[in-house]
Amino acid sequence: MAIRITGTGSYIPKSIEKNEDFYQHEFLNADGSSINNPNEVIVEKFESITGIFERRYADKQLVSSDLGFLAAQKAIDDAKIDPESIDYIICAHNFGDVRYNTVQSDILPCLASRIKHRLRIKNPKCVAYDILFGCPGWIEGVIQAQAFIKAGMAKRCLVIGTETLSRVVDKHDRDSMIYSDGAGASIIELSDEEGGILAHESASFTYDEAYYLYFGSSNNKDLSPDTRYIKMHGRKIYEFALTNVAQAMKDCLEESGIDISEVKKVLIHQANEKMDEAIVKRFYKLFNAEAPKDVMPMSIHKLGNSSVATVPTLFDLIRNGKLGDQKINKGDAIIFASVGAGMHINAIVYKY
Fold first, then answer.
1. Assuming Cys at both sites, which of 67, 170, 249, 282 could form a disulfide with 183, CB separation 3.0 to 4.6 Å?
2. Three-class SS of the chain
3. Per the database record, which ranges form the Beta-ketoacyl-[acyl-carrier-protein] synthase III C-terminal domain (predicted)?
4. Going by DSSP bridges, is the β-strand pair 333-340/263-268 parallel, antiparallel, or unpaired?
5. Half-sphere exposure (CA, 13 Å, Cβ side) for 266?
6. pLDDT tens for residues 166-223?
7. CATH architecture of 198-351
């Protein structure tokens, strides 16, 4: 018996925001002063660091729970299950439902309840709740689902990661170009097949790192200081992730009993291409090995950073042959890994 992902789904918004669309933005420094470079230079530098060429924004009439519902329905259909048989719905997000052109988050009721309502599930014993765990939220939701199943509290769980970061960015901050919208979902259940989740690792670094990502006022000091936007200390995050994510992945792999040579794919949170490459390189270096070519699939170039949605979306795209020639074969050992606000880190070793 194993605990496996038996169905996946994702929702990728249709609206594309290209890097050239930022040429007309008024980017400012954190103190409100002007940046002494034209936007073309700012965007070019951004592109070279992050690898992002374009990102997706949700349609104006949709909110995060809508995206989560659409991804969840696909995962249910893919797993070919009766939604009434789901024991837990775990929805990872960070900002709730934020309607277009508003500044207020709506999390009453929780997004998982809204998604369960949209799925028209009648069973009251299907428990729906949200998890706030930064970008690693979907992976943490999978870890919690596994725990419920191991404890005999559940046989089948639906785990969703959904976000509309485009609604909480400061358009005067260069970092706003990183963020995007999207949703990914998966069915986690007990299976007669072998493999599945072999090991997991989670950690919360808060002593010095808690506010590496935070809510802050706009770089445009003419705007209300009471309206807050997602902000980050990018250099601190990079240095933190490089050391701690690689180590968490190493600890997780060693616990699984899988040899580094057996790892076929590393599906890492799509935060920043250069950072992700450095983490994976550091991870392999811890085993005195070189990272194999194509071991780290990337979707960030066209989808940007959609927080909790990046890893499940990446997995779903590969499973369905929608990410170039990337593929995962039966029996392949893969690693899921993420880092985000908290600062939280987690990883899963999974045998497909």
1. 67
2. CEEEEEEEEEECCCEEEEHHHHCCCCCECCCCCECCCCHHHHHHHHHHHHCCCEEEECCCCCCHHHHHHHHHHHHHHHHCCCHHHCCEEEEECCCCECCCCCCCCECCCCHHHHHHHHCCCCCCCCEEEEECCCCCHHHHHHHHHHHHHHCCCCCEEEEEEEEEHHHCCCCCCHHHHHECEEEEEEEEEEECCCCEEEEEEEEECCCCCCCCEEEECCCCCCCCCCCCEEEECHHHHHHHHHHHHHHHHHHHHHHHCCCHHHEEEEEECCCCHHHHHHHHHHHHHCCCCCCCCCCCCCCHHHHCECHHHHHHHHHHHHHCCCCCCCCCCCCCEEEEEEEECCCEEEEEEEEC
3. 253-352
4. parallel
5. 30
6. 999 999 999 999 999 999 999 999 998 889 999 999 999 999 999 999 999 999 999 9
7. 3-Layer(aba) Sandwich (3.40)
User: What pTM was estimated for this model as a whole?
Assistant: 0.94
Give the architecture-level CATH label for domain 2-193: 3-Layer(aba) Sandwich (3.40)
Tokens in use for 231? 């902000």
- For the chain, give every domain's residue range: 2-193, 198-351
Same fold, 2-193 and 198-351: yes
Say if residues 270 and 303 touch (Cβ distance below 8 Å): yes
